[in-house]
Amino acid sequence: MDGQQYQNVLFLQRLVVPPRIPHLSGRPNRIGSCKPPKERNPDSDAPTFWNCEFAPHSLHRRDMRRVLLWLICLGIGFLPGCAMHRSVSKSLVEKRAREKEARAAALEWLALVDAGDYAPAYAMEPARLRAGTTEEQFVRSMEGRRAPFGRVLSRSFIGAAYTRKLTGSPDGRYESILFRTSFENKKLAAERVILSYESGGWRVVDYRLY
Question: Which residue among 19, 70, 151, 195 has its CA within the 20 to 30 Å range from the CA of 205?
Fold first, then answer.
């Protein structure tokens, strides 16, 4: 082997196994250990290599355990947030469904009042209110409060509010529906229909006209 070939072998050797600094304590490092090559025979053409021993499988398992532990911790951290998100989404869906049912019942009742059909509107009130007010009293009340405004020109939904308490009424499930209404004799007005969920449906317990 001439000098040029020997230099090429040394260069390849450094690429495959770079020289390592011996550990100060004399113990092998965590990855592996390297021993210096035996004294080279000057008459031999065989290249010399460092005698290194590595433990890649042990390192691989350790890293995998760390990654797995990190993923588990990350998943546990996301669980409360996911549960909260599902709870909020469910509450929002229930709120929209409740408002939709109550608003439909309010519009049905208002359509009867707009047409002057006060007797059917009275029948849509809960039994506990009908027990304290006769149909004739209800009709006279609506004729004095609602009839003077004339026919409805437009009515648009503004918003709704849910509550468990209502002044002068027992605790329950109440939905207050607000509309912006234009009447023949009052161009800009507001109507509030308060409903209570009783007997399997929404029933009107109060009507206010502003």
Answer: 151
Q: Is 59 among the domain residues?
A: no
Q: Are residues 30 and 112 in the same domain?
A: no
Q: Are 178 and 103 in contact (CB under 8 A)?
A: no
Does one domain contain both 181 and 122?
yes
Q: Strand runs (DSSP E) across 61-168, as ranges?
A: 152-163
d(CA 113, CA 67): 68
In a domain, 33, yes or no: yes
Whether 122 contacts 130, CB under 8 Å: yes
Q: In the chain, how many domains are there?
A: 2
DSSP state of 67: H
CATH number at residue 198: 3.10.450.590
pLDDT in tens, 118-172: 999 999 999 999 999 999 999 999 999 999 999 999 999 999 999 999 988 899 9
Q: Which residues have CB under 8 Å from 66's CB, separation 6+?
A: none
Domain of 187, in residue numbers: 96-209
Positions of the chain with pLDDT under 70: 1-62, 70, 73-88
Distance between CA 131 and CA 89 in Å, rounded?
40
